[in-house]
Specification:
The protein is mainly alpha-helical. 58% of the residues lie in helices and 0% in strands. The chain has 5 helices and no strands. GO terms for molecular function: ATP binding; ATP-dependent protein folding chaperone. One of its GO terms (cellular component) is cytosol.
Length: 161
């Protein structure tokens, strides 16, 4: 170790400290806001998971406050209580817990187990086909009457069951 290294390290820590503290505070506040938000994009997140995010934020904030007070009590020439790397590690730990919860995708709507059948069948283009062909099919009316008033589907379309 050279003679100026401890001084350089303390100066580097002093200049970086406010930036990393601000980053950690921003991280904590962002996750807290997401957990207490009434935004519909967070509605699908379980209340217990939101509470887990809030608990993590409160603990990280208490840790930050304590370490900042300890550091502020020291003179600039003293070895720092906490290094910038420690603040980054804490931010990463908060992120590891909170990010998967707050970025959890909404579940896809459940598909009904039985397909819903509409009460009246939608027109399947048979009226348009008859109008376009000019009723060239002499049996077009026979299909309509034989099926109890329902038009027969076009031959290229599969029948609904």
């Amino acid at each position: 170790m050279q003679q100026g290294d401890p001084i350089d390290e303390r100066y580097k820590e002093y200049t970086e400290r406010e930036t990393v503290i601000d980053q950690l505070a921003y991280c904590i506040n962002s996750y807290r806001e997401a957990a207490v938000s009434n935004d519909p994009k967070f509605d699908h997140i379980d209340l217990a998971e939101k509470q887990k995010v809030l608990t993590e934020c409160v603990e990280a904030e208490a840790w930050l406050r304590e370490k900042k007070q300890q550091q502020d009590a020291l003179p600039k020439l003293a070895t720092p209580v906490l290094l910038s790397a420690d603040f980054r590690k804490k931010a990463e730990a908060v992120d590891r817990v909170c990010r998967p919860i707050t970025t959890k995708p909404k579940p896809k709507p459940a598909k009904p187990s039985t397909p819903e059948t509409p009460s009246t069948p939608p027109p399947q283009g048979s009226e348009q086909q008859q109008a376009q062909s000019g009723n060239a099919d002499p049996n077009a009316g026979a299909h309509e009457n034989a099926e109890g008033g329902e038009a027969a589907p076009a031959s290229g379309e599969p029948m609904e069951t």
